[in-house]
Specification:
The complex is a heterodimer of chains A (about 120) and B (about 220). By secondary structure, chain A is α+β, with helices and mostly antiparallel strands. In chain A, about 30% of the residues lie in helices and about 30% in strands. Chain A has a single domain, classed as hypothetical protein PF0899 fold (2-Layer Sandwich), CATH 3.30.2320.50. Chain A contains three helices and six strands. Chain B has a seven-stranded parallel sheet with strand order 4-3-5-2-6-7-8, sandwiched between helices. The chains are: A alpha+beta (about 120), B alpha/beta (about 220). Strand 6 of chain A pairs antiparallel with strand 1 of chain B, so a sheet runs across the interface.
């Protein structure tokens, strides 16, 4: 259950950006979460609920975009149907497959209350 | 309301700390192993089987990560090797900042080899780079052959996978070749050794490989230590 650590890191990054803009509160934090990471979406949402308390993100929504895993063979090109579950070997030629997408764990953007709105 | 682009990795702070650790390790010519497995797969037993063969040849030390107790550190010290315990409390993995803090009170500049034994866990430690030179994952045949498929990120990122407890094949009714096939499907590039820390089977091959890896990496960083 390291989703608490992940949620705290997300909030730390979002707060730093909000402070740069002198914003008093964050409304939305949008992240991209790859399928081939160790982070579980539901566990992260649950952890975020607790981690945001007392921060600029206290009232923020966490929006999570799940990024599907995309595999590619250097010889045969994109591989849509792995031979077996989590098989990172090309079903046609047997070469190791590259993971093109699915390892993302990134804060994309935040939506903040602007300084003007506060005044 | 303003939308502000961030485009920052969630693990950025850890990655920066890991890069700084790696810079120090390379500057000192220290080869660093991040040793990971499920609880009970044999991390400390592997060190007990490996260290006696290496300690006369290299200056080495161990950092132990555990939620509670310094029992593993005591096992390492019994081998006559320096060991430092990081007790994480409730945190299920080591991160680069914990290692950096440990290094402040546990100097490693004179070391050729540092082993960091991570918290027993096949999930969370996979996400946290510590600045290591080698990622080594142990799984035991007694756990069953499907672990690499259930915890693919951990196995995918390993440089070496050690399959331990091969002496329990008959007792556990698990087939070694099924497990090694699954490792190969999740990580076709991994170097794999089948070992038994209890009987010593395969340990000599593993230690031979490790000596080569230490020599190769030490040459790469130009250390004569």
């Amino acid at each position: 259950m390291h989703e608490i650590s992940i949620a705290l890191s997300i909030i730390e990054i979002a707060e730093a950006k909000a402070r740069e803009r002198n914003s008093p509160s964050i409304q939305t934090i949008k992240i991209r979460l790859g399928e081939f990471t160790t982070v579980v979406k539901e566990a992260l949402e649950f952890a975020f609920e607790a981690a945001r308390i007392g921060t600029l993100a206290e009232g923020a929504q966490l929006e999570i975009e799940t990024v599907p895993m995309v595999l590619r063979c250097a010889l045969c090109g994109p591989v849509t149907e792995p031979a077996r579950t989590v098989c990172l070997v090309c079903p046609t030629c047997g070469l190791p497959l590259a993971i093109v997408a699915g390892e993302e764990l990134q804060v994309e953007y935040i939506e903040i209350e602007s300084e003007m709105e506060r005044v | 309301m303003d939308r502000v682009s961030v485009q920052t990795s969630v693990l950025k702070a850890n990655q920066e700390a890991a890069a700084e650790n790696r810079r120090l390790f390379e500057q000192d010519g220290t080869v660093v192993i991040n040793l990971m497995s499920a609880p009970g797969a044999g991390k400390t037993s592997l060190l007990e089987a490996t260290i006696p063969a290496l300690k006369g040849q290299y200056s080495l030390a161990v950092i132990e990560g555990d939620l509670q107790t310094d029992l593993d550190s005591q096992r390492i010290r019994a081998l006559g090797v320096r060991s430092h315990q990081i007790t994480t409390g409730t945190v299920c993995h080591l991160d680069a900042r914990m290692v950096a803090r440990a290094l402040a009170e546990f100097p490693i500049q004179t070391l050729r080899l540092l082993v960091i034994e991570n918290v027993g866990n096949l999930i969370c430690p996979a996400s946290y780079d510590l600045g290591e030179s080698l990622r080594i994952v142990i799984c035991s045949l007694a756990e069953g052959p499907e672990k690499p498929k259930k915890y693919p990120v951990m196995f995918h990122k390993a440089d070496v996978v050690l399959v331990n407890k091969t002496d329990l094949s008959a007792a556990s009714d698990h087939d070694l070749s099924d497990l090694i096939t699954n490792v190969g499907e999740v990580n076709p590039r991994a170097t794999v050794f089948a070992i038994s820390c209890r009987t010593g089977a395969g340990i000599e091959d593993w230690i031979g490989w490790l000596r080569e890896a230490i020599a190769f990496r030490s040459n790469a960083v130009g250390s004569g230590r």
